[in-house]
């Protein structure tokens, strides 16, 4: 007998970092590409600048995704805003700015797009980033039909998000599925476990559902694998391959 599953107002296809590989990750340009490909949910990574502005960025350092150098943690928003976050991808996106979380929230809410906000703290700023993200999300999504799903690998961030805005749904992100996943999901009052797709099995999906949680997998870039996981009843797949793995028109 399976447990009652928590509400999951999310589509099963989720564009990873907004636009997958087709546009510079974690930018508004990426979101627009994701939307053009029919995606109605995006995952993106959020962290704090040194002067506490929430911005979208994956890495600890700006080097890979901009023309700047060094840790994001030591840069103010004004310093980050002067960098080019598009040229590394392709000339078509030269000059693409780093978006604030506020701007992306506005874009997604205005377009009826659901969000998975991955809290990706700069090292040592886990709790404050979790708290700031949750409080900002509560404000940005006030009155919106679908709340954002907050997730993190950083359990301290998840805990802080839970304390700051308990009403916002949370997912525990794991690199490897820990033996005590049930206890951890209960501890942070999560609705879902977000796993590496390599760990996805029919048995695990069934066990997570039987325990009363949803389950999603990142990053699924092989169409056959995507089909299999969806057949097994997974609740969401994050993909970089927006052309090959996408919602039906
Ligand atoms: O949130 C799913 C996925 O984005 C987690 O890994 O490194 O791409 O942020 P990463
Ligand atoms: Mg992410």
TrEMBL record:
A single GO molecular function term of this UniProt record: glycerophosphodiester phosphodiesterase activity
SUPFAM superfamilies: PLC-like phosphodiesterases
Enzyme class per UniProt: hydrolase
Superkingdom in the source lineage: Bacteria
Keyword vocabulary terms for this entry: Hydrolase
BP GO terms, sorted: lipid metabolic process
Encoding gene, per UniProt annotation: ugpQ
Every GP-PDE domain range: 11-249
Name of this protein: Glycerophosphodiester phosphodiesterase, cytoplasmic
Biological source species: Achromobacter agilis
E.C. no: 3.1.4.46
Pfam families: GDPD
Taxonomic lineage of the native organism: Bacteria, Pseudomonadati, Pseudomonadota, Betaproteobacteria, Burkholderiales
PROSITE patterns: GP_PDE
InterPro entries: GP_PDE_dom, PLC-like_Pdiesterase_TIM-brl
Family matches, as PANTHER family: GLYCEROPHOSPHODIESTER PHOSPHODIESTERASE, CYTOPLASMIC (PTHR46211:SF1), GLYCEROPHOSPHORYL DIESTER PHOSPHODIESTERASE (PTHR46211)
